[in-house]
Design goal:
heterodimer; A: Rossmann fold; 2 domains; globular; B: mainly alpha; 7 helices
């Protein structure tokens, strides 16, 4: 084991420990003290409106492979999908999910199934509501646009790994006059979404989705752990820079 | 009852495999075999992902077949998709499934590349409209900063700022160099800040799955 591995392992253990402690401390009110992200309040309103007017929600999970380093964003998308499917299970039109990776498509079907089962609405489950729309980023984006334009979609949640091609999806959302909340873990995707999406999430806000949709106390606890670790890392970098400036490092 | 027992077994397997892969990444002690076990498990994951591709193709074809059967709007595109899928599949099999075969390569070079390049061209127009819409929809301080910095870095990338600096300060080229250097580093600093947040978020997401708090494999 070299010092890099040891440092990495310490950060992982520290993060896990902090998450566990914060979950125990804030079990009764998990969101207490967390800043308000207006995009999530607007998403909740858009979901309520979709249920009320009988329109559909569209969740897009991006084109990251679960075997790649971008898989975390897709996993966040899946937890948000789980919560969204539960919250909209009373709707006449169940949500439609698109993705650019086969494993993600299968997991989205599984998540939809579990959510409908939990809501005692398994009869509403249709496996073709979780779709693979293309294998390359562009074919995925182009394949997902008919879901936005032709299936009475009133709100879009685009959470996962996206490149600039995501602009085709947000443009379709504008054309359909539909709400869009979007987040990507990639920098080009984030830059495009800032200008193209109605409600863009920047940086780590992507990982706050589960907490703000109340997917469980561990989601809020992980946000607090991230905040603590961010301060620790920022302080370490500043100290490192200072020591380098002084010629000690 | 049966499904809940299955769910517990699946969760235990997922957590155990996740822990082995994570520890195998950090701990490399000869004789422990953790690294070899990690490699084997990742190999299995790659095989499963390859099989999942076939399931995904089945899903893609089912969705489009249903669209044709139900006569939904835009079903003509579904006909084209299924037709060309079958053509590519046959050509792929005839070319012994090698992507560099002379039979399959023209399909990729003459159809897929130009189509994706055209989409990229459409994207530039879409992005230009999105930037205009941004200023109409969100006239906030940060939206204006975003728009102005996009213009500044467009000018920087095209070499316009260096040229203007050369014209304005012909006797002091260091001034332009410092200005360009500072501007060059700004997006890098911002990107690192954002990526740090993304990295911490990814770590927390992974740990939630390892703790069984998130179960993307169904519950």
């Amino acid at each position: 084991m070299n010092w890099m591995s040891i440092t990495g392992l310490i950060i992982v253990i520290l993060c896990g420990g902090l998450m566990f402690v914060f979950m125990l401390l804030n079990r009764s009110r998990p969101l207490r003290g967390l800043r308000v992200i207006p995009a999530f309040s607007r998403l909740r309103r858009a979901m309520a409106l979709a249920v009320e007017d009988g329109s559909r929600l569209h969740v897009s999970l991006g084109s990251a492979s679960l075997l790649s380093s971008q898989s975390a964003s897709a996993l966040v998308g899946l937890s948000m999908l789980d919560r969204i499917a539960q919250l909209s299970s009373i709707s006449d039109r169940p949500p439609v999910v698109t993705s650019g990776d086969s494993v993600l498509a299968i997991l989205s079907q599984d998540t939809l199934r579990s959510s409908f089962q939990a809501a005692n609405a398994l009869d509403q489950y249709d496996p073709t509501r979780g779709r693979l729309t293309g294998f390359t980023p562009f074919s995925y984006a182009v394949g997902a646009t008919p879901a936005i334009l032709d299936e009475s979609v009133s709100a879009n949640v685009l959470v996962g790994h996206f490149g600039p091609e995501v602009a085709l999806l947000t443009d379709a959302a504008v054309e359909a006059n539909a709400f869009s909340l979007a987040a990507s873990d990639g920098l080009p995707g984030q830059a495009v979404l800032y200008s193209a999406a109605q409600e863009p999430l920047i940086g780590e806000e992507l990982f706050a989705g589960g907490a703000y949709l109340q997917a469980g106390p561990m989601h809020a606890a992980s946000l607090r752990a991230q905040d603590v670790l961010r301060w620790v890392l920022a302080a370490s970098m500043l100290v490192g820079a200072l020591l380098k400036l002084l010629g000690i490092l | 009852m049966k499904s809940s027992a299955l769910s517990i077994i699946l969760t235990v397997i997922a957590i155990a495999v996740g822990l082995v892969v994570l520890l195998g990444y950090f701990i490399s002690i000869p004789g422990l075999g953790l690294d070899a076990l990690r490699t084997t498990l990742l190999g299995w994951a790659i095989i499963l992902a390859a099989i999942a591709s076939w399931v995904g193709i089945g899903n893609l074809l089912t969705v489009h077949w249903n669209k044709i059967n139900n006569g939904q709007s835009g079903y003509g595109y579904s006909v084209v998709l299924i037709f060309f899928f079958l053509v590519t599949l046959v050509v792929g099999i005839l070319s012994y499934l090698s992507p560099e075969n002379n039979l399959l390569l023209p399909i990729v070079k003459a159809i897929q590349f130009p189509v994706e390049a055209s989409l990229m061209a459409i994207l530039t127009a879409v992005l230009a409209f999105a930037a205009i819409r941004l200023l109409r929809r969100r006239r906030t301080f940060f939206a204006i900063v975003f728009f102005v910095s996009a213009l500044v870095f467009l000018a920087l990338g095209s070499g316009l700022i260096s040229w203007i600096g050369g014209v304005l300060f012909p006797t002091n080229p260091d001034l332009t160099r410092v200005l360009v250097g500072v501007l060059d580093r700004m997006p890098m600093a911002g990107a690192r800040g954002i990526l740090l947040g993304v990295a911490l978020g990814s770590l927390a997401t992974g740990l939630r799955i390892l703790m069984g708090a998130d179960r993307p494999y169904g519950s």
